[in-house]
Amino acid sequence: MTKPSVVEKFEPLKAVAALAYLWKGSKGTTYTLLKMLYLADRYHLERYARTITGDIYVAMDQGPVASGAYDILKCARGKELPPEISEIARRHFRVDADHRLALLEEPDFDELSDSDVHALQHAVSTFDFLGSAEVRHLSHDKAWRIVRQRGGNGGNAPLMDLLTIAGTLRDGEALAAHLADSQPGEAVG
């Protein structure tokens, strides 16, 4: 399995807060919540050079999916995963057979920064304005298509490298260079 060239640290508590925030704003299905999370992360990456939760995206058939957030939703539906994820997921969410989420316990929304909330609100507004079909279409963006064309990952969905995602955004070349720099802001030479 190829690892992404730029890796952030996944923060499960932020993921729970982000998913709950998106759900409270939209009451979408788990499918649309994952699409909105991608749009929020893409928006945040373009403006602040980081994603909201540090999650790793995979280019699945139905579009980009945040791996850790998806695991949280699978646990809320009853799947057994590592205890630290399962406990957090089941304390906060339940997912029914129709992929509808129920919020069981409010997460700590203080896990989210002001910029995180701004990006999440942008995704909710996009969903409210355009609807789920268009949110799906927006998530099947150039980065997803590039990664899908590169091919699979030993039978698994291919990883969506942050540099690939960044490269498709406004000022993508500069953003990708910044993300690839192990010590951004330090003088060269």
Could you provide a short overview of the structure?
Helix content is 54%, strand content 8%. The chain is mainly alpha-helical. A 3-stranded antiparallel sheet has the order 2-1-5.
| Shape field | globular
SSE string, helix = H, strand = E?
Answer: HHEEHHEEHHHEHH
Regions with little confidence, pLDDT below 50 for 5+ residues: none
What is the total tally of β strands?
A: 5
Determine the structural class based on helices, strands and strand pairing. mainly alpha
Strand order of the largest sheet: 2-1-5
| Radius of gyration using CA atoms only | 16 Å
- Overall tally of domains: 1
The number of helical elements comes to 9
| Helix proportion | 40-55%
- Beta-strand residue fraction: 5-15%
What can be said about the biggest beta sheet?
A: 3 strands, antiparallel
Q: What is the typical, i.e. mean, pLDDT? A: 89
| Spatial separation of the terminal alpha carbons | 35 Å
Provide a descriptive summary of the structure in words.
The chain is mainly alpha-helical. The protein has one domain (12-177). 54% of the residues lie in helices and 8% in strands. The protein contains 9 helices and 5 strands, in the order H-H-E-E-H-H-E-E-H-H-H-E-H-H. It has helices at residues 12-26, 30-48, 67-76, 83-92, 114-130, 132-139, 142-150, 162-167, 172-180, and strands at 57-60, 63-66, 93-95, 101-103, 159-160. The chain has a 3-stranded antiparallel sheet with strand order 2-1-5. A two-stranded antiparallel ribbon has the order 3-4. The longest helix is centred in the first third of the chain and has 19 residues, at 30-48. The radius of gyration is 16 Å and the shape is globular. The mean pLDDT is 89.
